[in-house]
Write a structure and sequence with these properties.
With about 210 residues, the protein is α+β, with helices and mostly antiparallel strands. It has helices at about 40-55, 55-60, 60-75, 85-95, 105-130, 130-145, 145-150, 180-190; strands at about 15, 25-30, 160, 170-175, 195-200, 205-210. The protein has one domain (about 15-210).
Length: about 210
């Protein structure tokens, strides 16, 4: 609800439908590595909490629950609107202008963002080090939308990786319906570094996950 979206964004980019059997397959297209998601605070909360409660292995682990709760509480929900500076400019400006003189609202948001970003990335590193299976399940949810869409066509059944954003050459087809070595390797390859960072659209900035 906090995203203010009018409808949930599907994981499926392409639907292949058998006109005889009416069977449908949802495909998520990725250019190169692509992003598993680029979620704001509210969508991140939904992804991580649904993954937590969707598997007894996770939901009954008290240490994991505490870490997840701390992480989700630390995410900055506030967006910076009508900013006169983009993120690169903020970083450069506030290196020397350490009090944010002349940019009061930008400096206030940037200070909150930096504090939140550091805490969230540290907690994420702790979580994925101690509970790698949880990390795998979170990435899988980001790719498939299993908990978000159930059996609705918004759920992706396959990830198709293209060579790059200007190519139609397929380099990988990953089945999301069950566990596989290819899916495991893909999930291992992403979400390992600082996954909480800034995203912007026009003059609005916010914190994103992945």
């Amino acid at each position: 609800m906090g995203t203010k979206e009018l409808s949930p964004k599907p994981k499926t980019d392409i639907i292949i439908r058998n006109i005889d059997t009416l069977e449908e397959i949802g495909i998520s297209l990725k250019s190169g590595e692509g992003r598993a998601t680029s979620a704001d605070a509210y969508e991140t909360n939904a992804i991580i909490r649904s993954t937590l409660v969707g598997n007894p292995l996770h939901s009954e682990n008290h240490e994991l629950k505490e870490l997840v709760n701390s992480l989700l509480e630390a995410i900055l929900k506030e967006k910076m609107k009508s900013s006169t500076l983009n993120m690169s400019q903020m970083k450069e400006t506030f290196k020397s202008n350490t009090e944010g003189v002349g940019f009061d609202k930008e400096f206030e948001w940037f200070t909150k963002f930096e504090s939140s970003r550091v805490i969230c990335n540290q907690l994420w590193q702790t979580i994925i080090t101690k509970f790698p299976k949880f990390k795998y399940d979170v990435i899988h949810e980001c790719l498939s939308g299993k908990h978000k869409f159930g059996d609705n066509i918004g759920r992706a059944n396959y990830v198709v990786q293209l060579e790059n954003s200007s190519s139609t050459n397929i380099i990988n087809i990953i089945d999301l319906s069950g566990e596989s070595l290819m899916l495991e390797e893909y999930c291992k390859s992403i979400g390992n570094d600082n996954v909480f960072a800034a995203k912007s659209a026009g003059t609005t900035l916010w914190m994103r996950f992945l």
